[in-house]
Amino acid sequence: MRRRIPEVFLGIGFVGIMSTLFLGLNWAPSVSINAFESPAAQRIFYWHVPAAWSAFIAFGVLFTGSALWFFKRSPFGWRLHVAGTEAGLACGLMTVWSGCVWGAAEWGTPWDWTDVRLNTFGLLTLLALFLVLGRQSQPDGVETRDTFSTFGLYGFALVPLTYIATRIWQIRHPGPVIGAGDGGGSLQSSMALVLLIGALSFTIFIIGHMMISMRITHLEQRLEHAQKRLDGGN
């Protein structure tokens, strides 16, 4: 049963994500037409925010794994690094895609190059893409792992910058609707409930995703080690 835990997490997370999408489109109340240019497009918020939340979790795992490998030479740390990059790329692309849909409907443009938060998150997603493609195109080895781990360590600086960007430079991207420091959030209870379901579902899903990724990387490492032993024996 323990071997099936990642699959269970993926299944529960997927059902929760689909439920969030359904509730966001059909049950959560619509926002005021005076608050947004395109009130219907606001409903993608229930997908966009949890995806961004999960991306931050993935980038935190990437940073932890990069540190464990770079400073401790931990094989477990390298598996965390790989899992974090793959999960960060998946969630980052979902966040960017949903944000572009929102921006095209609300702002009349899918991207604003003057908005700090949009650009720092975009750089995070590009970093994950670089690490995923780089690992697949380069032979595995200590030097390769050191290089990619260094990118993971320094790139993590974009995470806190992205998080606080709208608190310092609110240009296009909306400011926080929860925990904004004004004594309460601006969401109705039903909207907050759907957002909570989405955040939990994406978190569970991405944990399952990373557990499976770590399992695959571990099997790849064992296969490579066995191949080297066979080659050495010949």
Description:
The chain is mainly alpha-helical and 234 residues long. It has one domain. It is 74% helix and 0% strand. It has 7 helices and no strands. Helix 2 runs antiparallel to helix 3 and helix 2 crosses helix 5. It is globular and about 70 Å long. Mean pLDDT is 85; it is low at 178-185.
Could you write a compact summary of the structure shown?
The chain has 234 residues and is mainly alpha-helical. The chain contains seven helices and no strands.
Topology:
Elements: H1 5-26, H2 45-72, H3 75-106, H4 116-137, H5 142-155, H6 158-168, H7 189-233
Helix pairs in contact: 1-7, 2-3, 2-5, 2-7, 3-4, 3-7, 4-5, 4-6
> What is the helix tally?
7
Residues in β-strands, percent: under 5%
Give the rounded overall mean pLDDT. Answer: 85
Write the element-wise H/E pattern from the N-terminal end onward: HHHHHHH
**Outline type:** globular
- Spans of at least 5 consecutive residues whose pLDDT stays below 50 are 178-185
Structure classification: mainly alpha
Largest sheet report: none
The value of Rg in angstroms is 20 Å
Distance between the termini: 39 Å
- Total domain modules: 1
- How many β strands by DSSP? 0
Oligomerization: single chain
Question: How much helix, percentage-wise, in residues?
Answer: over 70%
